[in-house]
Automatic annotation (TrEMBL):
The keyword Metal-binding applies. Cadherins are calcium-dependent cell adhesion proteins. Keywords: Calcium, Cell adhesion, Cell membrane, Cleavage on pair of basic residues, Glycoprotein, Membrane, Metal-binding, Repeat, Signal, Transmembrane, Transmembrane helix. It comes from the Eukaryota. The keyword Repressor does not apply. It is found in: Cell membrane. CDD domains: Cadherin_repeat (cd11304). The chain crosses the membrane at residues 532-565. It is a single-pass type I membrane protein. PROSITE patterns: CADHERIN_1 (PS00232), CADHERIN_2 (PS50268). Pfam families: CADH_Y-type_LIR, Cadherin. It comes from Geococcyx californianus. GO terms for cellular component: adherens junction; catenin complex; cell surface. This is Cadherin-4.
Length: 726
């Protein structure tokens, strides 16, 4: 475009532009000739980047003064078809049920074109290029050219035949003109979903199994089915049910979640004597209902024959626990009842034997053949083995089947009480004041029997001896209690045995004469026995108490005198020992103060054990560096020169020379008495042995042999031997 002012004929005008694309980013997209006013584009433009520009043009004179008001310039970029349609996704996933009718919606694909959508450059159209597989028709789907909706166009979708279709969809702009438009493609994956259009069918019409009687949770038979629907889906999972042949509910059918097989399982024990076989009719279906229009197959029903095998069943007691009632105290050998068992194996000829399993008191016997129960001892209701008047015993009934079977039964014997226990007086001891009317003794009775063979009790004093009724009296309080008190005004303190006759209310009644020990004692104003009174009541008079105290004092005095005598005797014996001279003591006593060393007993030893052993293997194999301090070194021994021995006068000198000679001439001698090896410097020393030195008091001893001992003894040889120059 060119801009121009009407005043350019009068004055010189300069033109300029401002705005986005000029002096604002993007910068210098447009430029203007300041003299002629022509505008130019400086670089290629992209409508998809910016579709329009808004600029302002200015006109000023040479001095920069505004000549015209700024004008607005609107520049629009014309679209060109330079962009292909782009799918939102390169791969689209959709699904459709098998057996769907034509026109069923599947999925939608979408492509966008960056060009102007108001022109043909941006108008996209869709079409299906290919379909894989082309079964049962090559055109199973169609696509809406404008919206991209994919729908079924033909019938015959069957998942069991084709599970998935791959459809290539093409999007083209220029309204789908393949000659001028730009195109792009995407992949649509269509999965045919399963519907329950195949009923499950048994692989065979009859099944059979076998089960032992009295067993539960046992799998009798496995029912196999075939279903062409999607595995491990509700359309495939089988559901089994028994429709006839099991009215008592002995069996159920569970589905194996992995194999889809039906497991006929026993849930209620079967009895061979009642049913030897079962004929079941079973039906199979799916968890999901069949699709509309699909009928059940006749192969969805099958028969199952189950045989019951007989096993040896344990005998059982029809009445368990069995309760009988009888009086206690029946004599030994009394027949109580017959406790018999029944063997359920009617088709086996077996004998039942009876034995005791538990009889805590060992009161009963049972006939091993017929189960008759007799008493082996007298039954006592008051025994500790009775709980709530009931004695309980357990018996065993075993047959002779293979293998043997046994059952247990419990017999409960309710013992009716009889009056076989006389009452006992309580308490056994009591105390009372020596004067009446201060206190009384409450007495009662205990009876091991139960009502009506217990109270009310009758308490009375015997007529013999007559002093009992003279001194004591009984007052009845109620049926179970009475009071014992003094009849006379004063009774001397002491312990009295008061007999009392107690009679129960049984039929016939039983009585018992019980003795209560009553301590009669002086009492204080509160009615309590005093201390002196209690002692007196114990039966000891004043004279007896004094005699006891005198005996105690005499005993203590004798003990004290004995201790003093022992101490004095010990002191005299010690003084006598100090006065006796040990040398004058003629007693053959040996006083051992210390032990200096071995005596005669230590000299009886074998010196050969201390000599060098014939074999040194055990020593040579010892770890290097580990050696006892008194052990002779192993290896080559240095050869010391043997010097002449000069006689020495005197026995002591001869003894020393002999010992020295023995040490010099026997280097293998053990270090028992004279030679101790403290350390071993090694072999091959150039110096001689100092053990060859000989002490002598003579002044004319020859020291020339020191020259043979090496350089270490050269100085010593010079001092004593005179040196080589002599």
């Amino acid at each position: 475009i060119q801009i121009r002012s009407d005043k350019d004929k009068e004055i010189h005008i300069r033109y300029s532009i401002t705005g986005v694309g000029a002096d604002q980013p993007p910068m210098e997209v447009f430029s203007i000739d300041p003299v002629s006013g022509r505008m130019y584009v400086t670089r290629p433009m992209d409508r998809e980047e910016r579709a329009s520009y808004h600029l302002r043009a200015h006109a000023v004179d040479m001095n920069g003064n505004k000549v015209e008001n700024p004008i607005d310039l609107y520049i629009y970029v014309i679209d060109m078809n330079d962009n292909r349609p782009e799918f939102i996704n390169q791969v689209y996933n959709g699904s459709v049920d098998e057996g769907s009718k034509p026109g069923t919606y599947v999925m939608t694909v979408t492509a966008n074109d960056a060009d102007d959508s108001t022109t043909a450059n941006g108008m996209v159209r869709y079409r299906i290029v290919t379909q894989t597989p082309q079964s049962p028709s090559q055109n199973m789907f169609t696509i809406n050219s404008e919206t991209g909706d994919i729908v079924t166009v033909a019938a015959g979708l069957d998942r069991e035949k084709v599970q998935q279709y791959i459809v290539i969809v093409q999007a083209t702009d220029m309204e789908g003109n393949l000659n001028y438009g730009l195109s792009n493609t995407a992949t649509a994956i269509i999965t045919v979903t399963d519907v329950n259009d195949n009923p499950p069918e048994f692989t065979t019409s009859t099944y059979s199994g076998e089960v032992p009687e009295n067993r539960v949770e046992v799998v009798v038979a496995n029912l196999t089915v075939m279903d062409r629907d999607q595995p491990h889906s509700p359309n495939w999972n089988a559901v089994y049910r028994i429709i006839s042949g099991d009215p008592s509910g002995h069996f159920t059918i569970r589905t194996d979640p992995v194999t889809n097989e039906g497991m006929v399982t026993v849930v209620k024990a079967v009895d061979y004597e009642m049913n030897r076989a079962f004929m079941l009719t079973v039906m199979v279906s799916n968890q999901a209902p069949l699709a509309s229009g699909i009928q059940m197959s006749f192969q969805s029903t099958a028969g199952v024959t189950i045989s019951v095998t007989d096993v040896n069943e344990a005998p059982y007691f029809p009445t368990n626990h069995k309760l009988i009632r009888l009086e206690e105290g029946v004599p030994t050998g009394t027949v109580l009842t017959t406790f018999s068992a029944v063997d359920p194996d009617r088709f086996m000829q077996q004998a039942v034997r009876y034995s005791k399993l538990s009889d805590p008191a060992n009161w009963l016997n049972i006939n091993a053949t017929n189960g008759q129960i007799t008493t082996a001892a007298v039954l006592d209701r008051e025994s500790d083995y009775i709980k709530n008047n009931v004695y309980e015993a357990t018996f065993l009934a075993a047959d002779n089947g293979i293998p043997p079977a046994s059952g247990t039964g419990t017999l409960q014997i309710y013992l009716i009480d009889i009056n076989d226990n006389a009452p006992e007086l309580l308490p056994k001891e009591a105390q009372i004041c020596e004067k009446p009317n201060l206190n009384v003794i409450n007495i009662t009775a205990a009876d091991a029997d139960i009502d009506p063979n217990v109270g009310p009790f009758v308490f009375e004093l015997p007529s013999v001896p007559s002093a009992v009724r003279k001194n004591w009296t009984i007052t009845r309080l109620n049926g179970d209690y009475a009071q014992l008190s003094l009849r006379i005004m004063y009774l001397e303190a002491g312990v009295y045995d008061v007999p009392i006759i107690v009679t129960d209310s049984g039929n016939p009644p039983l009585y018992n004469t019980s003795i209560i020990k009553v301590k009669v004692c002086p009492c204080d104003e509160n009615g309590d026995c005093t201390t002196i009174g209690a002692v007196a009541a114990a039966g000891l008079g004043t004279g007896a108490i004094i005699a006891i105290l005198i005996c105690i004092i005499i005993l203590l005095t004798m003990v004290l005198l004995f201790v003093v005598w022992m101490k004095r005797r010990e002191k005299e014996r010690h003084t006598k020992q100090l006065l006796i001279d040990p040398e004058d003591d003629v007693r053959d006593n040996i006083l051992k103060y210390d032990e200096e060393g071995g005596g005669e007993e230590d000299q009886d030893y074998d010196l050969s054990q201390l000599q060098q052993p014939e074999t040194m293997d055990h020593v040579l194999n010892k770890t290097p560096g580990v050696r006892r301090v008194d052990e002779r070194p192993i290896g080559a021994e240095p050869q010391y020169p043997i010097r002449p021995v000069i006689p020495h006068p005197g026995d002591i000198g001869d003894f020393i020379n002999e010992g020295l000679r023995a040490a010099d001439n026997d280097p293998t001698a053990p270090p028992y008495d004279s030679l101790l090896v403290f350390d071993y410097e090694g072999s091959g020393s150039t110096a001689g042995s100092v053990s060859s030195l000989n002490s002598s008091s003579s002044g004319d001893q020859d020291y020339d042999y020191l020259n043979d001992w090496g350089p270490r003894f050269k100085k010593l040889a010079d001092m004593y031997g005179g040196g080589e120059e002599d």
